[in-house]
Amino acid sequence: MFFWHAGATIALIRYAFRDERMDLRFLVLGAVLPDLLDTPVGLALWDRFHAVRLAAHSLTFAALVMLAVMVATRRGRPRKRWMPVAVGVLMHLFLDGMWRFPATLWWPFLGTAFASSGFATVGEYLRWLLTDWRTWLGETVGFVYLVVLARRSHLGEPERLRRFLRTGVVDAPIGP
Q1: Number of neighbours of residue 67 by Cβ within 10 angstroms
Q2: What's the pLDDT tens digit per position in 70-117?
Q3: Residue 7 half-sphere exposure, CB side, CA atoms within 13 Å?
Q4: The whole model's pTM is what?
Q5: Residue 64's CB: how many other CB atoms inside 10 A?
Q6: CB neighbour burial string for 102-120, b if at least 16 within 10 angstroms, e if fewer
Q7: What single-letter DSSP state applies at residue 111?
Q8: Given this model, what pLDDT does residue 168 score?
Q9: CA 10, CA 15: separation in Å to the nearest integer?
Q10: What is the spatial distance between Cα 167 and Cα 148, in angstroms, rounded to a whole number?
Q11: CB-CB contact of 38 with 57 (8 Å)
């Protein structure tokens, strides 16, 4: 669910932090990182886990990302650039409603098993994912927000798009 995580994370974090200079590229990286790491492993090892939400969907992973940012950067610009990755990971856990899956959220503190998806096969899981109206609704909401943000930021203009790709900053002011 790329658009849901990217769009909802940007919307909520821009509103909460009110930081118009935040590098949204790093925020989106954090917002999709748990799925980028866990989904291929979960699909490849379905017979073992019966899930695609594994260690990267845990608070342990989020804390390790935060710790890595804190250790690897100094105060100021480098930390400000990389901290959105950690914030994005935490937002991913929130947007996935991981509190409903405590075995995964609190992994490994409640044991080493991950919460099962409830589907016996990868095919069943993928069929559900591709036909679930909530999945499509979330993707649509995220996509629409990203389109609106791009239009408000005038990313259709080549210079503004180049600036965004170079800095991760958009020119859309954050409303009240």
Answers
A1: 11
A2: 999 988 888 889 999 999 999 999 999 999 999 999 999 999 999 999
A3: 18
A4: 0.93
A5: 15
A6: ebbbebeeeeeebbebebe
A7: -
A8: 95
A9: 8
A10: 19
A11: yes
Q: Cβ contacts of residue 160 below 8 Å, gap of 6+? A: 153, 154, 171
Tokens of 46: 């379905």
DSSP conformation class of 45: T
Query: Exposure string (b/e) for 5-34, b if CB count within 10 Å is 16 or more?
Result: bbbbbbbebbeeeeeeebbbbbbbbbbbbb
| Separation between Cα atoms, residue 148 and residue 155, nearest integer Å | 10
Is the torsion defined by CA of 29, 34, 35, 37 positive or negative?
Answer: positive
CA pair distance 50, 115, nearest whole angstrom: 8
- The whole-angstrom separation of Cα 31 and Cα 95 is 9
Rounded CA separation 5/88 (Å): 9
